[in-house]
């Protein structure tokens, strides 16, 4: 059951993952959202998967093929005390502003919002949102009613929001979470007509001499006019 062929036999996933992970790692576009599934419980083909994911994220972001990105995998890479933690993969997701990472393994229904460089950021525009899935399956059901015990999630995308609803098998709603996209904003008419001088004049910065950190700010004129910073 640890072989990816077992998983591939029961799931009709696109056959577009890296060699050795076909049927368990894949991607697809649905409207303006890029979905990526990663097989991270077996460390084989790790470097190949990282390169594959970066190419997908680069294409989605720099070529504007997707306004939002959702990644799914089994092991939660953001856990702080477990061997599942993967700072290399987290850094990749931060680099390309992945909007939401869905994981499982611990059956805890636990979220971490705006996770950035090892801690939760107070800036809503920074960081990645992580959600560990709730209990399900026969392993822990015991004498509980399986229709109530097992929980699932419905993921909806509406405008610039990702809405995740947690339900049981009867359809009862237990929670609704909303995640705002970090890479999408409507381009105003003012921004569309802005000159290069207007945009450059909207930039400002301050420097903290104690920490050697420079903080840049700019107006909405930059949206739609700046490819990358």
Explain what this protein looks like in three dimensions.
There is one protein chain. Strand 11 and strand 12 form a beta hairpin. The relative contact order is 0.09. The chain starts with a helix and ends in a 12-residue tail after the last strand. The strands form three sheets. Strands 1-2-3-4-7-5-6 form a seven-stranded mixed β-sheet, with helices on one face. Strands 8-9-10 form a three-stranded antiparallel β-sheet. It has a two-stranded antiparallel ribbon with strand order 11-12. The protein is globular, with a radius of gyration of 20 Å. The model has no long low-confidence stretch (mean pLDDT 89). It is α/β, with parallel strands linked by helices and 229 residues long.
What's the gist of this structure?
The protein is an alpha/beta fold and 229 residues long. It contains six helices and twelve strands.
Topology of this protein?
Elements: H1 4-10, E1 26-30, E2 33-37, H2 46-62, E3 68-72, H3 87-95, E4 100-103, E5 110-116, E6 119-120, E7 128-132, H4 146-149, E8 151-158, E9 161-168, E10 173-180, H5 189-192, H6 196-201, E11 204-208, E12 213-217
Parallel strand pairs: 2-3, 3-4, 4-7
Antiparallel strand pairs: 1-2, 5-6, 5-7, 8-9, 9-10, 11-12
Shape: globular
Based on CA atoms alone, the radius of gyration comes out at 20 Å
Helix content: 10-25%
* Distance separating the two termini: 45 Å
Keywords for this entry:
229 residues; alpha/beta; 3-stranded antiparallel sheet; 12 strands
């Amino acid at each position: 059951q640890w072989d990816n062929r077992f998983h591939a036999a029961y799931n009709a996933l696109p056959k577009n993952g890296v060699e050795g992970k076909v049927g368990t790692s894949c991607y697809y576009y649905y409207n303006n959202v890029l979905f990526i599934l990663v097989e991270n419980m077996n460390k084989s083909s790790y470097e190949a998967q990282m390169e594959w994911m970066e190419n997908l994220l680069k294409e989605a972001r720099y070529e504007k093929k997707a306004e939002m990105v959702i990644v799914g995998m089994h092991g939660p890479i953001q856990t702080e005390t477990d061997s599942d933690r993967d700072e290399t993969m987290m850094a990749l997701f931060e680099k390309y502003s992945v909007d939401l990472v869905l994981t499982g393994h611990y059956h805890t229904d636990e979220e971490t919002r705006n996770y950035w460089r090892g801690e939760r950021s107070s800036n809503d525009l920074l960081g990645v949102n992580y959600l560990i899935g709730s209990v399900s399956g026969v392993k822990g059901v015991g004498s509980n009613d399986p229709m109530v015990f097992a929980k699932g999630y419905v993921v909806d995308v509406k405008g610039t929001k990702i809405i995740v609803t947690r339900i049981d098998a009867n359809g009862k709603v237990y929670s609704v979470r909303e995640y705002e996209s970090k890479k999408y904003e409507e381009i105003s008419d003012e921004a569309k007509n802005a000159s290069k001088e207007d945009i450059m004049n909207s930039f400002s910065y301050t420097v903290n001499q104690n920490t050697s950190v420079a903080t840049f700010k700019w107006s909405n004129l930059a949206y739609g006019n700046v490819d990358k910073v």
